[in-house]
């Protein structure tokens, strides 16, 4: 279990994390979304024990993570900009990981050769961007971490490799309850991979939910009333994230349970009423709009 309690972090005068709290259950896959500069990388580095918050506490399995070797040897962080030792081959890197991570599983590393198919004696710095990322996952998964922290992880992987990596992650989560935190701008990936999602903005988590709940709680509605003068009264009873009028049809993004929305709408005679689910990408855009984040007008 990862617990982040009211942490703040400043870089000079810039507040990157602002009194942020969060908890991630063991064996879950938590997706961290957010605008550029929201503070995702700063948060991940603090959870990984690389950076120290100015205020607040962070624990992994009840132990503080900052400069705590007994915690860090159970946590692997794959950053957005990968680092490998200069001139090191994959085999050299594996030897380093084996030294640092006590749970290193050589058998797994050998088995994963067939998934990644890169020559162990290749120097990592000579590999392509996507191949370097494959090596990062290969090493990380062989270290058998309790917690895997991934900052923009899928970037650079081809579609086949993405699927392989996703399956490997799912396998470790299912079989040994590995906990995964993933920051990404790729909402489709987050939607596929994660069971929980947190949306960050200006150093805070503004929404945190199970992905299924988030999707069940936000709807797209197309609506045309028999008597348009009833619309204002009707809309006042709904929590509206976005409103657009297209001719006589209103397009609404509404927060709330489907049954409750149906109940409100059924109080008026309608010519058209369609309630449709939203993708995570659409939910993200409208939630950001609701808190004042400027977006271009999105045509659905
Ligand atoms: N080393 C640093 N020195 C000074 N400011 C920093 C440093 N790292 C991050 N920041 C600032 O902290 C804020 C949060 O940055 P961070 O990299 O955590 O955001 P992010 O959500 O990961 O962004 P992105 O999606 O663009 O990668 C930004 O305003 C950034 O300029």
TrEMBL record:
UniProt xrefs under PROSITE patterns: ABC_TRANSPORTER_2 (PS50893)
Keywords: ATP-binding, Nucleotide-binding, Transport
Top-level taxon of the source organism: Bacteria
Residue span(s) of domain ABC transporter: 2-227
GO molecular function: ATP binding; ATP hydrolysis activity
KW Cytoplasm (keyword) present: no
InterPro entries in UniProt: AAA+_ATPase, ABC_transporter-like_ATP-bd, ABC_Transporter_VariousFunc, P-loop_NTPase
Full protein name: ABC transporter ATP-binding protein
Organism: Metabacillus litoralis
Lineage of the species this protein comes from: Bacteria, Bacillati, Bacillota, Bacilli, Bacillales
């Amino acid at each position: 279990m990862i617990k982040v309690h009211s942490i703040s972090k400043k870089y000079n005068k810039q507040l990157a994390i602002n009194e942020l709290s969060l908890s991630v259950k063991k064996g879950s896959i938590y997706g961290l979304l957010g605008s550029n500069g929201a503070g995702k990388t700063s948060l991940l580095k603090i959870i990984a024990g690389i950076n120290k918050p100015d205020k607040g506490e962070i624990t992994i399995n009840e132990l503080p993570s900052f400069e705590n070797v007994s915690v860090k040897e159970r946590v692997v962080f794959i950053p957005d900009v990968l680092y490998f030792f200069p001139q090191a081959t994959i085999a050299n890197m594996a030897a380093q990981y084996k030294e640092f991570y006590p749970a290193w599983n050589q058998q797994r590393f050998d088995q994963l050769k067939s998934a990644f198919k890169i020559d162990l004696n290749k120097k990592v710095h000579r590999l392509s961007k996507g191949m370097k990322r494959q090596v990062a996952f290969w090493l990380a998964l062989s270290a058998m971490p309790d917690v895997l922290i991934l900052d923009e992880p899928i970037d650079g992987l081809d579609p086949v490799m993405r699927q392989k990596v996703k399956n490997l992650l799912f396998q470790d989560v299912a079989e040994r309850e590995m906990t995964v935190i993933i920051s990404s701008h790729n909402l489709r990936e987050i939607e596929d991979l994660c069971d929980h999602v947190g949306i960050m903005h200006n150093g805070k988590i503004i929404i945190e939910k199970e992905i299924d709940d988030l999707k069940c709680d936000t709807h797209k509605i197309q609506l045309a009333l028999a008597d348009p003068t009833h619309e204002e009264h009707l809309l006042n009873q709904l929590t509206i994230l976005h409103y657009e009028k297209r001719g006589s049809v209103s397009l609404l993004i509404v927060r709330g349970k489907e049954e409750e929305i149906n109940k409100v709408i059924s109080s008026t005679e309608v010519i058209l009423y369609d309630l449709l689910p939203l993708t995570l990408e659409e939910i993200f855009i409208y939630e950001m709009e609701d808190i004042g984040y400027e977006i271009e007008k999105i045509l659905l």
